Amino acid sequence: MATESKLTKNLYTDITRLKLLNKSDAEVKFLLLTSPFTGDEDDDDLADKKREEYSITGQIYPNSEIYRERSYAIEIILTKTFPLDPPKVCFITPIYHPNIEEKGDFCNDLLVKTAKWTPKTSLVEIVKIVVRHVDEPDADNPVRAALFFYVSCFVHIYVQAEYVIVGRILPNSDIFKESAFQIEIKLTSSYPLEPPEVRFLTPIYHPNVTKDGKFCHALLLKTSRWKPGTKLVEVVRVIVEHIDNPDIDYSINPEIGREYLDNRVEFNRKALKMVEQHKLPRN
């Protein structure tokens, strides 16, 4: 087993290489903010450092259409068993992402000891893993499956002062989990005082969705439960939950609502048929 001094020196070398990711020609960009080393220690000082939990913080700069709009501060925590065990990566900057827990923990099988982790993985490679999987979400293993929402388009309509967000939801119920569904969230000039308008672009047979795709729910009615502080994350959550569990009290299509209550077998048959006709990939 490597000595404490060797482990610490290797870490110092690894962090030095990590700093090079701030160069303009780097494959991915990473700005180091803090590390266990102040930058003015010599080799003897490093050898004397006590091996505890090390924390490295920095900013990543994703490249995808949505996430490239800003940088994200992350923390890489190296435990006493590093590099035998993988580090823990946590997002300090809040981010809405299927592979990142609400509290910020980043989850990917490359950073799990029992999966693909190898002790030779460098800090540079770890940062590349994080950036790559922020840009390319792992839809097969989301840690927030019910909230998975892949944004494919964000449009600002200047003339009407509207914002349009287009993305895909991934329901979990037996019928609707067979497909992804593309939806449009329109934020009018009166948003957030008034709720957004939600429309399904992918056809769906559902009591709370009209033939032309309009989604109806109490939360999205100005006179009901809508509050200006409601976040878009909550809007997406409501959509997914009520696609999986139809709200018959707000059936915008009464015939389908009655069929859902009185003849579930027939409803399931029609809903599944439409899913099969218009299904979209879930990744």
Automatic annotation (TrEMBL):
InterPro entries assigned to the protein according to its UniProt record, in alphabetical order: UBC, UBQ-conjugating_enzyme/RWD
One Pfam entry for this protein is UQ_con
Q: What residue stretches are annotated with the UBC core domain?
A: 16-128, 125-280
Gene3D superfamilies, sorted: Ubiquitin Conjugating Enzyme (3.10.110.10)
Name-wise, this protein is UBC core domain-containing protein
Say which species the protein is native to: Adineta steineri
Q: What is the lineage of its organism?
A: Eukaryota, Metazoa, Spiralia, Gnathifera, Rotifera
